[in-house]
Write a structure and sequence with these properties.
Layout: E1 2-11, H1 15-24, E2 30-34, H2 42-45, E3 50-51, H3 60-70, H4 77-85, H5 87-96, E4 122-123, H6 129-142, E5 147-151, E6 153-161, E7 164-172, E8 177-188, H7 209-216, E9 221-222, E10 227-234, E11 242-243, H8 246-250, E12 254-256, H9 276-290, E13 295-298, H10 304-310, H11 312-320, E14 330-339, E15 342-344, E16 356-358, E17 363-364, H12 377-398, H13 418-438, H14 445-466, H15 473-494
Helix pairs in contact: 1-6, 1-12, 3-4, 7-15, 10-11, 13-14, 13-15, 14-15
This protein binds flavin-adenine dinucleotide.
């Protein structure tokens, strides 16, 4: 097997992985491994923006308090303070890396307001903030001679012996070769797991590989029951879900049921801008009451020109669906969106395995607690990548890696047959449907227990019938999705109370 050695290997090329790599490239040779094209990530699709206190009328204490409230008193307060205090620097850092944020006529940041925030504090680039950030960071890493980028390389497993990480086992998809990467430090920045649910806002790459890899390696996991569902995604009978950012509600759009009646004012003092879990459940309740497939988001009272200016992508996408949002109400449904829990990390993004860091959506820093405050996740990615990079700089001086792990032998892959591929696809859809139906927005012990049994069977079938036919990325992703699903269901069964975005109807 090919064997390469770097100071640092970073798995994932979203905001967390890229910003960590950029900082570490000042003192180390870094390899970024990413399973698709470099830009493909949750980061790329982020719309609303990044939370930061930049207005005199706002305060860091307010940002902390809003985050703790959304997190249902389950947050790590030190991490939340660190996040809020470093938010302004994070925005300025991104500007230095050529990220363009919208400004007002007098040159200050144009701040949006989103659900759960008591002040306008969302820095944004129209309604495509993620694309702007991702493109700028990709540009920086591509021009850095200390950073090597391997696109279309799939990380299979971490190389861990006696609770120490020595790098990762990687599969190069085009030439079907395995590669052993030895590194002093490994960073898991592999993003979320939205794909385990039938209705979700995430791209195809979000199959939870990092969570599963870390779990297999023995890392401590935390808060896996807390999956956040986004209340408003464009209802579509076919095709991919499209997120309708909370900022549109912050701008004045109002939720209405299928009869065109408002309902959020009876649910929460912040009405349509209540925290996401509350809005998601209220929508499901209205849908059940009216036996409808969606509710409406009504932006028709808002000025057309402003809608086009502030939400150009949403405006255009809805037009493609035959909806002029200045005249037509938008049919919306909730969908799985963000994983609050994950690989347990400390203030420096260190996992419980030595030399293994985790950052971004795959990490559980404790910032989000039981429910994430909107626009805190891109921020978490940058702030904790900096924490990790500072810690790595010290660590790297004391850590030595040649091929300490020893050489790995791995079975040469056999290309999976067409029949196997179809079977993996069918099993993946089955898993997604089970998770959506039995471990979604409203959970009960009986549904969760049933789901766990189904997942057990699915795991056995995948391991027996598919893995024995040879390695394939699709099979590995399916296995990772099963592992993540089991972790979510297990945690959801253990937490018998309702908390944050975990809701137990029993
Ligand atoms: C539609 C949408 C809108 C959002 N809007 C906002 C917003 O406005 N504000 C906000 O703060 N947050 C928002 N979020 C959440 C936010 O985008 C994510 O939480 C954040 O981008 C996660 O960044 P990350 O770097 O941790 O992971 P990602 O950006 O998801 O990157 C993960 C990377 O890991 C790679 N990877 C995964 N598995 C492997 C493997 N096995 N081998 C190699 N590479 C692998 C992926 O290909 C990808 O490059 C939104 C999310 C979505 C989906």
């Amino acid at each position: 097997m090919r064997n390469e050695t770097y100071d640092i290997v970073v798995i994932g090329s979203g905001i967390a992985g890229l910003s960590y790599a950029i900082r570490c490239a000042d003192f180390a040779k870094v390899l970024i491994v990413t399973k698709g094209n470099i830009g493909e990530s949750n980061t790329m699709y982020a719309q609303g923006g990044i939370a930061a206190v930049l207005d005199d009328k706002d305060s860091i204490e307010n940002h902390i308090s809003d985050t703790l409230t959304a997190g249902d008193n389950h947050c790590n307060k030190d991490c939340v303070r660190l996040l809020a205090e470093n938010a302004k620097d994070a925005i300025l850092y991104l500007e230095q890396l050529s990220v363009n944020f919208n400004k007002t006529d007098n040159g200050t940041f144009d701040l949006h307001r989103e659900g759960g925030h008591s002040h306008a504090r969302i820095v944004h680039h129209a309604d495509a903030t993620g694309k702007e950030v991702e493109s700028a960071l990709v540009n920086v890493v591509k021009n850095n001679t200390n950073i090597t980028i391997y696109e279309n390389y799939f990380a299979i497993d971490l190389l861990v012996k006696e609770n120490k990480c020595y790098g990762a086992l990687i599969f190069k998809s085009d030439s079907e070769e395995f590669l052993q990467v030895n590194a002093k430090v490994t960073m898991l920045a592999s993003g979320g797991l939205g794909q385990v649910f039938l209705q979700n806002t995430n791209p195809d790459v979000a199959t939870g590989d990092g969570f599963a890899m870390a779990y297999r390696a023995g890392a401590e996991m935390e808060d896996m029951e807390f999956v956040q569902f986004h209340p408003t995604t464009l209802f579509a009978r076919k095709g991919r879900t499209f997120l309708i950012t909370e900022a549109l509600r912050g701008f004045g759009a109002i939720l209405k049921n299928s009869k065109g009646e408002t309902f959020m004012e009876n649910v929460h003092p912040l009405s349509s801008l209540a925290p996401r879990d509350i809005v998601s459940r209220a929508i499901i309740q209205e849908m059940n009451k009216d036996n409808s497939e969606f509710v409406y988001l009504d932006a028709t009272k808002l000025d057309r020109e402003s809608l086009e200016k502030h939400f150009p992508n949403i405006f255009e996408r809805c037009l493609l669906e035959g909806l002029d949002i200045s005249k037509d109400m938008i049919p919306v449904v909730p969908a799985a969106h963000y994983m609050c829990g994950g690989i347990k990390t400390d203030l420096h993004a260190r996992s419980s395995i030595e030399n293994l860091y985790a950052c971004g959506e795959c990490a559980a820093t404790g910032v989000h607690g039981a429910n994430r405050l909107a626009s805190n996740s891109l921020l978490e990615g940058i702030v904790f990548a900096k924490q990790a990079a500072n810690d790595t700089q010290q660590k790297i001086q004391e850590t030595f890696t040649s091929a300490i792990f020893g050489n790995l032998e791995y079975k040469t892959p056999e290309v999976n047959c067409e029949e196997c591929k179809q079977e993996v696809g069918a099993l993946k859809r089955y898993l997604q449907a089970q998770m959506w139906r039995n471990c979604g927005i409203v959970r009960t012990e009986s549904k969760l227990t049933y789901c766990f049994e189904e997942l057990d069977e699915l795991q056995e079938k995948t391991e027996k019938d598919l893995c024995e036919n040879g390695f394939s990325i699709a099979t590995m992703e399916l296995l990772n999705m099963v592992t993540c699903s089991k972790l979510i269901v297990e945690a959801a069964l253990k937490r018998t109370e309702s908390k944050g975005c975990h809701y137990r109807a029993d």
